[in-house]
Structure formats: C-alpha cells, structure tokens
Amino acid sequence: MRTYLAYRLGTSAIVMIGVSLVTYGMIFLTPGNPAEVILSERLDRPPSQAEIEAFEAEHGLTDPVPVQYGRWLTDVLRGDLGTSYYAETQVTSMIGTALPVTVELAVASMLIALAIAVPTGVLSAVYQGTSVDVVCQLGSLVGVSMPNFWLAYLLILAFPLTLGVLPVAGAGSPGQLVLPAVTLGTGMAAVLTRLIRASMLEVLAEAYVDTARSKGLRGRIVRYKHALRNALIPVVTIIGLQFGSLLNGAVVIEVVFQRPGLGLLLVDAVFDRDYPVIQGITLIAAGIFVVTNLFVDLAYRSLDPRVSMGGEAS
Amino acid sequence: MKATEDERPIDQRLRRRRFLGAIAAGCTAGVAGCAEGASDDIDGETVTIVPPSNPADSDDQWERWSGMTPYWTRVVEPLVWGTKEMHAKPWLATDWELTDDTTWVFELREGVTFHNGAEMTADDVVHSYENDILERYGDFVYGWLHLEPGSVEKIDDYTVEFTNTEPFPDFPGTIGHNMLDVHPPSADPWNGDVIGTGPFTLEDVEDGQYVELGTHDDYWGGDVAPDGLTVRAAEDETTRTNLLESGDADVVLEPSKPRLTSLRRSDEFVVETQQSSGSTFVSFNLYEEPTDDADLRRALNYAVSQSEIVEEALGGLGRPASGPISTVIDWAADDELPDYERDHETARELVADSSYDGEELTCLVRGDQDDDDLIAQILQSEFDAVGVDLDIELLERAAYQDRTGRGEFHLAIDGTQSNSPGADYIMWENFHSRGVDNIDLYEADGTGLHNLGGEVDDLIETGFQSNDPEQRHEAYVEAQRRIVEEAVVIPITYREYAVAMDATIEGVELHPIDRLLEWRSLRRSQ
C-alpha cells in the first residue's frame, strides 16, 4: 500500500504540473489583456497605454511567459497562490472562502444523487421490462436531458415563488442548500441510475447469482448483499469522475442561486483575466480530482480485492 | 470661477457581469408570466435592496474597485454629488472656486461627523486623496483626476486646495464620484474598518452575499428613515427578480426585462424607470475598408429604426437616440442633429454609391452586455434589406476589448456612461484622436477608430478646457453634429434603467446615475 501511495502521489504531482502548464498556456493564448480588462473595471473607462504599462510592470506581465510560470510555480511550492489582480487579495484567502461553499453543494448533491439513483437503478434492473423499469428509465432520460439552469428556474418557480417555501438564493443556511443541491443532484442521479441499472443487470446475469439462488438464499439477500455490492464497483469510479464534473455544474448553479463558491469565482476570474485566481482554482480543482480518484481506487480495492494497483503485484 | 451647477467629467463604461443572462432571460420568459409573488411580511423597518452588481465580492475588504459597496451603500461620501441634471452639487464640500487656471479651492462643510464621532476636517480630505487615492492607486488615476501626488493641500481646517496638472474645468464634477470618498486616517477600510460620513454604517459583510448596514444617527444631511439596509448580491437579473417576488427583497435594480410587464401588472409591486447618463450606439471603424466610406456609414444609419430597436430588443426600456450622448447631460445634442429617419430606398442608393462591394462586415458584440446581441441581430436583418452583409461576432469582454483595441472590426455595439456628474470624458475618450479609444492606433499610424480628427478634435478640446458654459456647450454640440453628419456612429438609445420594488416601499428617488441613488428616505407604508 505504501508503495502504491508513493507511486500515486508522484503521478498526481505530474498531473497537477501538467494541468497548471496547460492552463497557463491556454490563458496566454486567449485574447484579452488583464491590464486592460481590470483597469477598465476599476476606472469605468478604457485605460491609457501608460496605465496599462504601469499595471503590467507592477504584476510582472511583461516578463516572458516561461519566467512568469516559473515564478508562479515557485510561489506555489512555498504555499503561495499569489494575489488576485482584480481584488488585490490573496488567492488562497479567496479560495478558502469559496471552496467550502462549493464542497457543501457537491456533497449534498452527491448524497441526493445516490439517494435517488441506487434504489431507482436497482429497481429498474430487478424489474427489467416491466412498467417500473419503463418509469425509472423515463425519469432517468428526463433527468439527463433537462438542463441544470432550466430545472433550477422551475424549482424556484415552484417552491419559493408559488408555494412560498425555501429561499430563492444565497448560501449559509440549510434551507439555501436544498434547491441548488436538488438541481445538481437530480442530473447526476439520472446518469448514475442508468449506470447502476446496467451494472446490476450484468451482475444479476452472473453464474454466482444463480448459484446463490439455487442454494435457497432469498432473492432480497441475493440482490442486495451479493449482487449490489459487485454492481457498485464501476459506479464508484463514476462517482469519482462525477465529483470532478461537479465544478462544471457549480458554475451554472452558483450563478443562478448566487452562491459565492468556486464556480462563481472562476467565472469572474476568467472574464477578468485574473490569472492568479484562474490558476489557483484550476490547481485546487485538479487537486480535488486527483485526490478523489485516489480514494476511488482505494475504495475499488476494498470492494474487490482482486483489483491490483500500480506498484503492487497482483 | 465660482462653482455653479455646471460641472461634468469623466465617462465610464457600463459593464455588468451577467453570465447566463441571455439564457436565463430566454428560459424565464416562458415561465415568468405565471409567476405569482409570495411576499412575506417583513418586520421592522430594515429594507433589502438588490443592485445589479455584487456588494461584497472583495473578500471581506473594503475595496473601491470591486464590489459596489462604495457605490451603492452610502457608507462613505465624496466632496461633490450630482444633481438630476448632471451638475455638480455641494456635498461634503459646500463651495469651490477656481483661483487660477489649475487651482481649485474647496470649502468643506462644517459639523460633518464620521461614524466614529470625529469631525471631518481638511486633514481627512488630504489623507483620503493623497494616501488612499493618488498614492495607493498611482498612475491610472492621475489622468482621470488630473492630479498627481502632492497636489492636494490643506489651507485651514475647512479649506482644501487642489492643483490640477493642466486646466480642467470639469474637475468638481469629476470628483462627484463615490469612489473618491473621504474617511479618517484612523480607518483601515482595506481591512474591514470602514468609517465614513454617510447616512449608513457598515455592520457586517458576508462575502459574496450581502452587506448589512446600520444608520448614522448624526448624519449631517438629517434623518435617516430606515432602521437599516441589507444590500444583497444577485448579479443575475432573474435571481434579483425572484428575490423580489418571493419577498426576500424590497427594491431591485434592473429586474429581468421579460418580467417587467407582469411586475407592472401586479398590485404587489411598483416599477419605475429613469433615463440614465448612458447611451448605446454602434461605432464604426473609420479607418477600415469599407466602413471608411461615409456614404456606406450613412446608408447603414438610414437602414435602421431606433424606435423599433428600443421596442423589440429593449422591451421599450430606453429612448430612441439621435446622437451618441444621453440627453440627461446638458451639452448633449439631440434636436440639433441630422436625423436619419429609416429609409431603405435612400440607404440602397447610398450603398450603391459607396465603395461597398458585397463584402461581409464584422460587427463585434459583447456577450456580457444585455440586449446587445438582439440589437445586432436587428441590425443584421435591416442591413440585409439594403444589401449589406453583416457577420455578428459575440465575444466576452476581454476578447472584445482586444479586438477593438487592435481595430480588427468594422462595427461594434458600443456605448458610454458617466458615473459622475462630470461627463466631458465621454466625448474625449470616444471621439478625440487622443482619447483612449483612439490614441494607440492614432499614435502608431495616424489613424484611430472613431476619431474624425482636425476640427472635431479642436471642438472637443474647446469643450473640455473652456470655463465658459455657453462656449463649452456650443463646442460639444457642434462636435456631435459633425460626428452624426459623418455617421461615425449609429445612435441607438439613450439608456433607461428600471427599479422594481415592493408596493409598500416609499421614498425611492431615481437618479440618472444609478450609483447615486439615495436610500435614506426609504420607508414602508402602513
């Protein structure tokens, strides 16, 4: 396990450096000058060339890109993600404020997704071909097809505006988490439902399930003790990947529900060409993705000891 | 020169970050009509307002540039305010005088107390300008204010002298801007310790969500009606409207346009509109073929109907424009300008006479500007009707600035707005060869973007530097007349903004500069 962890940490570091390099490169290939954008914001008018040059000099933007990247990487290794060009505050502080809001949303969404997807997917598989299966699959299709923001507005229209329950927007209270989490969670639930159904069908067709049944085990025990555990193995992988994609969903949902999380921060940073913030959020997102996948792999192994890991003998 | 209500300066570009705005508006339009408000009873006299930008996006810091706390919350105040006629109005300064070409002497209001109980004096003004504005922000405010470090001096406890770097008659109007606030040296606004002179005191900031305000009992301007204010963040117009309809907000600025009709029809809400200091126009690149041809530009002016655009793209919110400057600014021309009534026949003739040869014209549109894409689509259709092919490129702000800055376009949906009573800068930045829109290309190769140069430059300089209001007015009107005659722009609209509020709220007084809205008269009717 130690060998494996060391191996994974090494590859994770390479992945994160790669991500930061690609992001940095893409930032500089994107049209738009942060000096011009941010000074326009500050002054409410286009800045003069002298003003732009002063800003660029102050933030080291006149240096060659590799020099800028090297400086940024050196600072990161010292734990400093830099200072926002726009807000003139530490990126770590900004991310520290925004990250919990997004993590809270992601976890709540995932719990809602699993609460919906596991029973629905299993029922759909167990009652394959029946009306129950059709209803479950139809629900899943609707969930996959429905855009997040559209569902968000429907929920707002239904609950706060029509029924007068739950807040429209904001963050900080459990009530303010319900609608955004349901919005994000239902879309994810639709994906997971289909996957669980497929996986469950595959497992239910395995010989050991027939063996268990022929030994006289009750169907419920066979389905939920033996089959479901094995059916969840590929689902665990998808859950990890879904966590990574949650940031995408959060961008939209945080705007609609005015939740000051990483998504909202990233949108603003991209529009402002606030390089340090973009880089910081990308790095954190990549880190979350890498760590989540590591946990997924470890969970994989606990679910199926036959699975070997890099750096270990099978 | 004695100060009169006759000052105006710097222009400012309206920009609102409105991610998803178009999508949201489109989607919401379908469901909006059936949305019923679910107003809660709100206890007490605290009022919740929701402006179009975030009041608290500065990570717990008092940040002049990000967030709009200095803009909207009335915690801090400048020396000068603006009248509804866009003239400079005494505020923390009661009077000002130009003692020579570049020197201004400002008399301060006596008896003004900060939130910490201390009296405001000249030392506070000098500190605010020298330390917190000129020194802290450096180069890029010098050109705006025509000041440099060391140019603000105390004469006595209630008199301050400002020395401009060059003659700048519009200085008093220029500093009528909420970013140029006065606070005591003991305050540390960048670390959350905000002490101002305004009617409201800062109580709490929840990053990205709201600012809570209390009231300043010793406010120099008199009583403050509400017990407090909550300024909530909701940058998405649909979210703002939802907050109002659900009873979570009392006053929202710029509600969702598709829902204005239903808000107006409801007994629970009131909608008011106000013409702003902003305008929207299509600007031509005068130095790119074929839009370097005035006949083609005039043809495209004849191709469009401003009133139709205002109705179809803006939902009736705005006034059809004849010129590039909003008519709330007193030197704006409107009646004096040539009128391009929509006339497709004339437009086709002018196209035929021009150097246009069927090529596709590029029109740049900023994605974060409400309605600009709709305006561009209407233009595309109208131009097509007169035989001109228009390609619309929707860009986000930075890319738009990059492309326009390099002159890689034929047309751009553009606009301008002043956030202070001084608005001279609008003319300078857009239409003078050395204005920021034009100077780079002008210096590089003698061209520019929207600058006719020559006599128009002279007229703008005269307007900018004249201490004689009449001469100034004449110069600016003549400059605008030539700009419209030469079809440098297609004027679209003098902007209006809407404010929607709970029907029980009273005391909202609208202002051409939305950032100068006052909240201290807000109250709830019984």
UniProtKB/TrEMBL annotation, chain B:
The keyword Transport applies. GO terms for biological process: peptide transport. One of its GO terms (molecular function) is peptide transmembrane transporter activity. InterPro entries: Peptide/Ni-bd, SBP_5, SBP_5_dom. The keyword Nucleus does not apply. Pfam families: SBP_bac_5 (PF00496). CDD domains: PBP2_NikA_DppA_OppA_like. It comes from the Archaea. GO terms for cellular component: ATP-binding cassette (ABC) transporter complex; periplasmic space. PANTHER family: OLIGOPEPTIDE-BINDING PROTEIN APPA, PERIPLASMIC BINDING COMPONENT OF ABC TRANSPORTER. This is ABC-type transport system, periplasmic component.
